[in-house]
Amino acid sequence: MKRLTGALNAVAIFAVLLLLWQCVIWFGHVPPFMLPSPAKVGQVAVDRWASLVHSFAITAFAAALGLAASIVAGVGISLIFAQSRWVRRMFYPYTLLLQTVPIVAIAPLILMWVGAGTGSVTLITFIICLAPIIANTTQGMVSVDENLVHLFLMHNATRGQILFKLRLPHAIPALFVGVRISAGIAVIGAITGELFAGSSSVGQGGLGYSIIYSSQQLQTDYLFALIAASAVLGFVFYFIVAGLEWYFLHNWHESARTPEVE
Q1: Can you name the residues that pair with 204 across neighbouring β-strands?
Q2: Averaged pLDDT, 16-31
Q3: 87: pLDDT strictly greater than 60
């Protein structure tokens, strides 16, 4: 019942936003080329459904590939950092460079080195998603209770056993925090990459490339449809990660359990 109520509230809020959008057009006398009506956006989405889905699939593939690569690389780097405090102190600050350097500044270089297309978009997504995963997973691994580490040592556990049977399982909730953050910015990274290197053929590409192309052609209604599709893709990524987090954690970690009393 609570989930149904939440869904109805979300639908009601969405309907109110659409009504406000339409009222701005009615009372502000905004021309269609500046702000098309919701009905116009919905109509162009239906008329150009095939191209919209095609762009959606291209961006989703690049974002998912970059996110998956960042998870694999981020966990691997975190395993190394968790093994040695010296290595962590020497190299961990350099991971902050992935967050401090604007991706729009290095995107032209990646385009120059890798070339236009999915490869560049995936690499940009990988770079923008990597830092949150490293930061959260490393923190989860190094924050294990020292008493548990001593207990493992008392039973003659090797460093590998401590790492994979204690530190890594302990870091899974923190890992999902990083993945949840990266899942949202993966779509941003993919679309940002497509703004620079979205396609190797004119008129065809992912959502980011199609946004630029539609803007240049003054197809404002289709531009709004592409923006809506980008938001939907972000929600899809978030709910997939949230579902995986619940699946892996709800049986043993309090962060994924449904509270009995609110």
Answers
A1: 201
A2: 82
A3: yes
